[in-house]
Amino acid sequence: MNTNNKSATAATPSPSKSASAPRKRVQPKSARRRSREAALQGLYQWLITGDDVGTIDAHMREQQDFDKADRAHFDALLNGCILEAPDLDGVLARHVDRKTTELSPIEHAVLMIGAYELKHCIDIPYKVAINEAVELAKAFGGTDGHKYVNGVLDRAAGDLRPLEVSARGKSGSGSSASK
User: Bias regions of kind Basic residues — which residues (predicted)?
Assistant: First the structure.
């Protein structure tokens, strides 16, 4: 019996062992991140089922922790992406290697959110909009989907935010000294 207890104890990392290994501090999700995640789930549902946006919206608001999301941003993303889907797909079509209807629904939804933020959310720097889309793809998409999302949105940013992209290119790394 004692050997069983020892083996069970040995399998559990001791505080001293885990304290010596560097830990990545997990940051709490921001309200905007939560709104993007909820919008992604709603867009996924819309792409798969074609359900009415009102039905999807009501369903998403019932989800656990929705009250922690930025509701205004969620509304803008979900409704805006669905309303402007043909326009957003037109922007994306110039930068994808296949029809947007052939993309995985997750990648398609993430790209729509990224393109929508690049087009309409000027208060969000384009690099942040791209990074947020990449993080969504990492959390919800396939193994290397985030790399695809990054490349497509980086090229789309040139179309949707040409002044910001060119200014960033001229300033090099965008150091805080130039801001």
Answer: 22-35
